[in-house]
Fold each of these.
Amino acid sequence: MRKEKITVLPGDGIGPEVTKVATDVLAAVCSRYNVELETTELPFGGISYDEYGEPVTEAVLDECKKNKFVLLGAVGGQKWDDLPTDKRPEAALLKLRKELGVYANLRPIIVWPALADASTLKKDVISGTDILILRELTGGIYFGDRVVSEDGENPFSADTMKYSRSEIHRIARKAFEAARLRDKQVCSVDKANVLESSRMWRKSVIEISEEYPDVELTHMLVDNCAMQLIRNPKQFDVMVTGNLFGDILSDEAAMLTGSIGMLPSASLGDGNGLYEPVHGSAPDIAGQGVANPLAAVASAALLCRYSLNLEEAARDIEAAIQTVLEEGYRTPDLYNDEPGTTKTGTQEIADRLLEIISEKATV
Ligand code: IPM
Ligand code: MG
């Protein structure tokens, strides 16, 4: 039996609830394909700060780097909001991404047919949407130099948005490669009418596009893109953009799918893989058993696809998600009284997912 090691970082808020479901589903599906999953759970985020005074310890970082594949829940919460920047749970996340070198963040935006009525947008606008957002994850303004000047009469602060050609080249390549397996269209999003870093971005993406003459490249300014995403999302195939714009646009795009509770992500680079739902730790609903586990479960599917090389297992998980949705299971974030649907908790969805996967195993 093949063995795979995965580090699980449940994190804060609803993180532990949703990662529990994801790891159970992952273990069930892996055993169908004769893969024995060994998981190590470690503290990360606010919970780590409370225990060790650091949002991530060196030991945890080392373990993540050693195991290569990480499944993460969510981090953060009001409790830690006033800590110095480097002690905040979010700082741990940025550090982990950087140290793992996972520069390519894939955020697939897929509107599941069963959820076409769950979005606040009109069904005919969103149904059939299938976008792959590629967000650059280890550079740009999230990692540029910062200035905080509290002195003088008018204190100021600054963040630097910096991109080098090689950083843009490698993420652009990922976008073109991904597009080749899809509709062969890449839309690069920037703010080249104002920002130098965006002009560098555009020029560098064009350079790489020359290696992919079979893929069509277009450019869009980020403000227009924010509008186009809700005006006509079906126009997009692969979207590639920098760290900040990708962060914002992917939350917006999440609403096309009905809820941010549906959006998985995979962050790849240097042979490492970090898998996390796009949603946050939602402290307001933590511990109530109502969190939507599907983004975490879908992230586990991406782990099978991109790190474990188990495409069939990934599809089994995605099929199980589709079935629970078709059967009408809805956590409160998705529930809108639609006939044929039932408001359910996290555990009911988890149980049903595991049942579907085990039923399939006996066919
Ligand atoms: C995300 C999150 C993080 C980010 C936060 C929690 C630091 O919003 O993964 O999109 O900005 O990258
Ligand atoms: Mg975000």
Note: The longest helix spans residues 15-32.
Amino acid sequence: MTTGSLHEAIADRSATVGVLGLGYVGLPLSLAFVDAGFAVRGFDVDQYRVRELQAGLSYVDDVTDEELQRGLESGFEPSDDPSVLADCDAYVLAVPTGMDDAPDMSAIEAASRTVAEQSGPGETLVVVSSTVYPGATREVVAPIVDDARDAPTRFAMVPERLNPGGEYAFGDIPLVVGADSDRSRAIAEALFDAVVSETYPVSSTQTAELTKTLENTYRMVNIGLVNELVSLVEGMDADLWEAIDAAATKPFGFQPFRPGPGVGGHCTPIDPQFLAWRARRDGTELSLVEGAQTVNDDMPALVAERVERLLRARGVDPADASVLALGASYKPDVGDVRNSPALDVLSALPEEAAVVVADPYVDASDVPRELVRDVTPADSERADVVVLLVDHAAFDLHAIGDAADVVFDARNAMPDDVAADVVALGDLGDDPTADSRGEGLLLEGE
Ligand code: SAJ
């Protein structure tokens, strides 16, 4: 359908795009729009980040300095001065959101006010790409922007699906485009069709917001399922990790998730809370979602308890123990510690215990215990127990496992042929009380 000059300006790339928030979402998105031929004005409140960008230095893992410098030469203009956003044809909000007792939309509100102040007199597209609770585009963004503008504003919600460090390139990941009118949806699709191979339109902004929160709630709940089974299989002669791999041989209807010390990061543990909060606000409850969240939140304490039990079974008072913990970030090969369950495990271990944490990536200021970057054989030998919390590829698990006495493996990542005793999450190992749980009983005639 024809949608007038804004649509044409997007089609002929004469439109100017303003991106608010130049982090792991906004920066790659800005450069993708530049590559597609748009002039892009980038705004971030963090002047240090902006100075680095202006110097051609990328702080986003998936963006090289060369890609950034090419963008700067081709029409990308980052600034911490909001006036850089004056009179853009389209704005994309890619700022952080979070959860306290209620969804933290403060950055979204601030960005909306900036758009309201800087947008020009013509028809303008405003896209929310940050993850927000279902309803936020209509309830938070639109009132702030609409109140300040006479000209028509076209709102859309296009949730980010970046796969940091993953095997999918930005342009290959389909993007969902939700809007509350055909006109808004068509204009937003035209913009994002310029940067990804497939856009998938949905009927409303709330459907797009629901899609994004559903994606990560699905992950969180299914991780909670396998985490809940950990306590069950401790009393069985069964290997949960093996069962998950075996179930994954079913070519349909099953996606493997694996147990661990909990669910960290700024997406998977947070997005489901947006849904649960929206449900409670509407007078209902997502008991399955909230139950899975509780299971995952309880995993760090369970891991710490199993480590202490393992120490006691080997005659070591946990308070006097020397512990080597492998990993502090929320997932392998990143330094991000947001909501990291590994840090929660470290906090749950006895304060008096001598705990050394090995992690090549995290900031020392983020870790409440002694931090080393590399693990020496002496580190492993000195420990009463090694606790594998994050299986960074940089760890030489063979060398660590051959030098250690015993490893509690919360990721089931230790090689099978190491010299140390290895107790995986879900296995009570040589706990002398284990027999009472039915392990070791020979069936009649075996
Ligand atoms: N985790 C498990 N067991 C699993 C998978 C994950 O315990 O089977 C834990 C991880 O150790 C981590 C947490 O859950 O602590 C979150 O892991 P994640 O793989 O969900 O990684 P995130 O939080 O970086 O999620 C993001 C999401 N991407 C977006 O929202 C755009 C998610 O949808 C992606 O699937 C994920 O990245 C990814 O695959 O990289």
Note: The chain is about 35% helix and 15% strand.
Amino acid sequence: MSGREPRVIVIGAGVAGITTAYVLRERGFTDVTVLEKGSDVGGVWYWNHYPGLRCDVPSQIYQFGFAPKPDWQHTWATGTTIARYHRDVVDQLGLAPLIRLDTEVTDLVWDETGHWSLTTAAGETLIADFVICATGVLHHPFTPDIPGLADFAGPVVHTARWDDDLDTTGKRIAVIGTGSTGVQVVSALQPDASSIDHYVRSAQWILWAPMSIRQLPGIAAVLARFPALHRALYRMMAFGGSALLTDVTTRPSWRRRAVQEYARLCLRIQVRDKELRAKLEPDYQPLCKRQVVSGSYYRAIGSGNAELVTARIAEVTAGGIRTADGTHRDADIIVLATGFAAHNYMRPMRLIGRDRIDIDDAWAKGPRAYRMTAIPGFPNLFTVLGPNSPTGSISLQYTSELTAGYIAQWLEKFRAGELTTVEVTEQATTRFNDDVATAMGPTVWNTGCNSWYLTEDGNIDLWPFDRTTMNQMLGSPEPADFHLT
Ligand code: NA7
């Protein structure tokens, strides 16, 4: 069989899409197009620009291994800085010509003659031999179904679609949601607000960290001067951080207990008011939900103009929010920090695979894939940061690079003429998912709390293994797990 250059379309130009474009370009693939629905690259860092936005992972870890940045201004970078970094990486590595912005894919249909047909929102049709969905996890804002929300007289803004023209100074602000976003936005808006009410359905453990601390002077110059040292340091920190997080989250140990004790200590030491402390104390183990890190929230919520509201929201009125105990609190602005539909992946795009299988049917019991990247019934389609990605433990940039390298090996087989289609078997996918379910047993995510890690069926959509296992699983393809033609 004689091979040819595969036509590859990557959907999404966030962390996963940028990494995939880079890896495929480095492996010599010349027909790669990245379609991005946003007007700029960066994915979640393009769409999110609410006040107080910072990454909850230190910047020296949260960056591309192939493009480490020496001059992070802060140890925990702001959203603006990270968005800028992504743009710079794309420009400096010459990836921009591969990326088409403002191009949303609405339909992705497998043509039984052996290729994918993509339709864009503008009505254009594109053909690809392979499609790689790098569509992200924290992508589709979740808007809760609260009675009366549509009747509120003032602005209602979701944090993931922040209106930069919104003036919050001197206003009465209601913030709903207490994940990382709610905690950051309350901390940022509280000082200039007339009043801020934080509506908390479930309390969060909050680890104290000096998030706005600046990177030590001189570090940037040293790292820029010695790139090899910088890369080595990056690997040490990213791998060390992943190992530590994997350890504390996936099995009970003294290290897990130590981090949990630290979370309890943060609350005890920082909140002296016993009544407030009782309201802030969660009824589940620290680390069960995605851990919130903040250096300022406890101070903000303890301020005179802030109130923590734990009563259930009954309804939104034209002028504010009424809770189930009958209390009405006036508000000028409602901020929804209510997170994301984290298990949509490429949907609501219409995705139809072999024998007209619809992804909604294939995933009727929740998203499932083989080793985060391949889905039975969907030949020549891969995901990067797909189901069971390690969003709670291992570097997502590293995971993206490893997955893209794995996919590249399949593309090389196509190019060499060794295959025209590749589709993971149902058996291999079931085996992988059974192993995942077993490994979830001792994880801290399985200790009884509600979080965006859980699918509707209660499955934990995370990676319960360590990085070494990930390297083994994505090191090289196992043809026995696939149907090849
Ligand atoms: P999260 O962590 O999913 O938080 C969403 C919050 O919204 C959470 O506190 C929810 O309460 C709350 N929520 C959702 N629906 C409602 C209703 N109907 N009423 C009251 N409260 C509600 O999203 P984030 O954006 O903060 O963070 C996502 C990730 O981004 C984060 O983990 C970091 O990795 C970065 P619940 O806890 O479900 O009771």
Note: The CA atoms of residues 166 and 266 lie 33 Å apart.
Amino acid sequence: MTPRSADPELACDIFCAVVDNFGDIGVCWRLARQLHAEHGWRVRLYVDDLKVFHALCPEVDATLERQVAMGVTIEHWREPSHAGDTLAIPDVVIEAFACELPHAYIAAMARRDAKPVWINLEYLSGEDWVADFHMRPSPHPRYPLDKSFFFPGLGEGTGGVLKERDLDTRREQFDADAWWRERIGIERPGGGETVVSLFAYENPAVDALLAQWRDGDEPVVVLVPEGRISGALARFFGMPKFAAGMSSRAGALRAHALGFVEQPRFDELLWAADINFVRGEDSFVRAQWAQKPFVWHIYPQADDAHLPKLDAALAHCTRTLDPSARDAVARFWHAWNGAGVPDWADFWRHRPKLESCAARWAKELADVGDLAGNLVAHVASRLVR
Ligand code: TRH
């Protein structure tokens, strides 16, 4: 039997329901592009909110039912029961983050002679249990179909996280001077200034942090993509808003607001900064590949279900730090996620150690393998003809 993974025409549908924010479509769009560009798959992406998608990919026209962007066919998933007009079932079906597939679609999957490989792509967690559950099949109660649970993760035995093949090369070739002129309209700050990127949800700890930067001895330049934390910046600087293109300063702190950029350019912000505050899932992963110190504002869940995930990520990312630096990072991350007041000086005095740890961690994480490659390997093991 010949594995079908070598088939350049392997067809895949990805279903994505946007719950809120940008992470759901952020992950699906990155995966879709990668499966097409790096593995030659024919990918169709069903998305229920094209307006959010448009922010990440401006060439997506929110009024169209069907379109192609970057080689990926995009279908407007109008309602949960809508399954496209043709109901052509591909070789691989990926349901992202437990969004429910249309019933008519599942019935058509069951009618297909060669059953598709059906994968539920889960949210990322660094917790240990993930490796035990990764790729566990679950038989459908009514149809002769198996669904596998694909768990992204930060450790061995998990699905890993997405990383494009050319990412490190793009990072190494990044022209920071040109970026500062183009995006901020000023020369790149000198080595004596600490550049911070700040992508976060509303966060009660931000006022204390801004005040520490303002009152500190070292100059800090903070770059803020316009979004949920912008209101706090505006209040801090006494401005009506802190919108893209606006700047302000107070004491040792300078701040610049940035417009939202298409997803492939988001990494540049992380490469331009000395330390990155990131959130959710996809920007959290990108910060790890940026090989810079970072602080994670995790997506808050009911009953504090996110806190064990935060600690699991801390354990992975800081594993090679000495105890004093590791404790400082844990204190700072916890404060940024609602437990205590952040102490910038206590955290940033460890900067050299945090920088070398970030580079070590990116290498360790790469050993788990790229999620798209791991998924393709799984499909290859299941699809035979
Ligand atoms: O937007 P998020 O908060 O998304 C969240 C999380 O995914 C969370 O786990 C999920 O449950 C919730 O959504 C529904 O953060 P995240 O995951 O970092 O996604 C942001 C995306 O936006 C990421 O792909 C990077 C992208 N981005 C751009 O493309 N351009 C930009 O200018 C910026 C600031 C971000």
Note: The chain has two domains: 11-162+368-380, 167-366.
